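Morning. Coffee machine broken again, so started the prediction first thing and wrote up yesterday's gels while waiting. Chain of 208 residues, entered below exactly as on the submission form.
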Amino acid sequence: MNWQEIVRIYLTDYYALNIKFGPILLGAFTIFIVIAIFRLIPKNKWGFKHDIELNVSLGGIGVLKIKPNHELEQIAHKAWTELITRKAGLKFDLENDVINEVYNSWYVLFSEIRNLVKEIPSGQIKDADTQKLVNLLVDSLNKGLRPHLTTWQAKFRKWYDYKEKKHKDKTPQEIQKMYPLYDKLIHDLVLINQQMVAYINELKKLIS
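Came back before lunch.
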């Protein structure tokens, strides 16, 4: 058999059917197997990373694509851990949650995310995808949480402190429902909370 033959079928001296595949067919079959294996195994198992699309409604951030690397994944994991373990990352319970506790959680979150960003080495933050993640983390606070806090926090806390002294027999949940603009405040708070929970789920995509 020479290299130009694709397949050769013949009878042996003992009338047995014999099939031989040529180098071209064997090579094509080998390439096919390699390609199939490559497609079946996730790219990140080979060490390759692909762009991950995040759709973030919080703060009107929108859609962005980030290609993670090891360092970026570490930053995302730290941020995700801060978010998921705090009140800010949990669904707001209309009957049991206390608005002031949510605001306290948001305040601490601002501080922790700022510290996380400060800890990123200057050389690493120059990476384009790392910069996208940093902008996402900062925008989620400044564009997502800050507008609500600016509108409602100071006014509500002042009102609440006054009412708490007058209604010592009532629970915090009962007092906060007496707030004249409670329905508007809580509508905005629940909306931000839902967007925050969805944002946390999107951020998790960056963690392998």
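Residues 42-48 have pLDDT under 50 and may be disordered. Going to sketch it on the whiteboard this afternoon.
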